[in-house]
Structure formats: C-alpha cells, structure tokens
C-alpha cells in the first residue's frame, strides 16, 4: 500500500512538473577551497602565536565537513574535538555558535540537546558575497579570546 501511495505521488509530481514546463535542476553551492582553508588555519596559528595562545583550529566547508585542522604545540588534547564541533555547528546552521551560547544562557534553552548545535563560543562562519562558504572553530583559550580570534580569522578571508 505504501509503495502504491509513493508511486501515485511521484506520478502526480512528474505530471505537475511537465504541465508547468519545469524540469529538475542542479544548484551550485559556493564553498571554501582546501587551499583557502589551509591559509585560514595558518592565519589563525599566526594570530594565536602573536597573542600567546595555544589552541586548536578547525576549518570546514559550508556543509561542516573538515577541510583543515591544526593543533598548536601545547594545546590541550580535549580541544581537538571541541574546535571541530564548533566549526561544524557554525557551518551547518550558518550562524556563529555564540548565538546558541547566548540563547542557552539567557533563555535557559536546552538548545544543546538538538543534534549538531553546540552552544559555545569560538565557532564563526566564513562568508563570501553574503553567503556562508565555510567556518572556523577555535578551542583552547578563554571564551572571549576564542571568539575574538575566530572572528578575526573569518574576517581575514578575502
């Protein structure tokens, strides 16, 4: 019965598309290149060193898939997964993770229980022409310094 319902829906959809003269199309998505991700990770390392920070840096594409990662000498081992999770959360929801952090704190929302959302600072989207093309995740310092570094790195994208 379910297979029959699915077939009827598919047929109706195809008929509606044909009647409207539309066809399926492919949509392209702008994404951060691997080269740009490596450059951002390098830039983050330079800035962090100048600020006497020892951190982990993750850079993802627009879908939250890891493109580049650096763990600076002396960064805590626990910061590896945290930096990646911050970058993934920012990219997948196209919003800086500090927004989730603020909502969780101010509204006492259990937003962190939603899969993929990390209410923490240090996950910042990278944009090009107003579109999210990737993200940066920073972990290993205090909240404000992580956030500032992530913002500075994302802003350095050209």
TrEMBL record:
SUPFAM superfamilies listed in its UniProt record: GlcG-like (SSF143744)
Coiled coil: none
InterPro entries in alphabetical order: GlcG_carb_metab_protein (IPR052517), PduO/GlcC-like (IPR005624), PduO/GlcC-like_sf (IPR038084)
Signal peptide annotation: 1-18
Keyword field: Signal
Protein name, per record: Heme-binding protein
Organism: Pseudomonas vanderleydeniana
């Amino acid at each position: 019965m379910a297979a029959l319902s699915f077939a009827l829906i598919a047929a109706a959809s195809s008929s509606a598309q044909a009647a409207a003269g539309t066809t399926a199309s492919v949509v392209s998505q702008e994404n951060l290149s691997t080269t740009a991700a490596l450059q951002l990770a390098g830039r983050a390392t330079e800035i962090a060193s100048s600020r006497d920070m020892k951190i982990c840096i993750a850079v993802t594409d627009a879908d939250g898939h890891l493109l580049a990662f650096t763990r600076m000498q002396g960064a805590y081992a626990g910061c590896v997964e945290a930096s990646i999770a911050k970058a993934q959360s920012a990219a997948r929801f196209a919003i800086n993770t500090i927004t989730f952090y603020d909502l969780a704190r101010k509204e006492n929302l259990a937003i962190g229980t939603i899969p993929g959302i990390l209410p923490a600072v240090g996950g910042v989207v990278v944009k090009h022409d107003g579109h999210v093309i990737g993200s940066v995740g920073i972990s290993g310092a205090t909240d404000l310094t992580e956030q500032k570094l992530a913002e500075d790195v994302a802003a350095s994208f050209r």
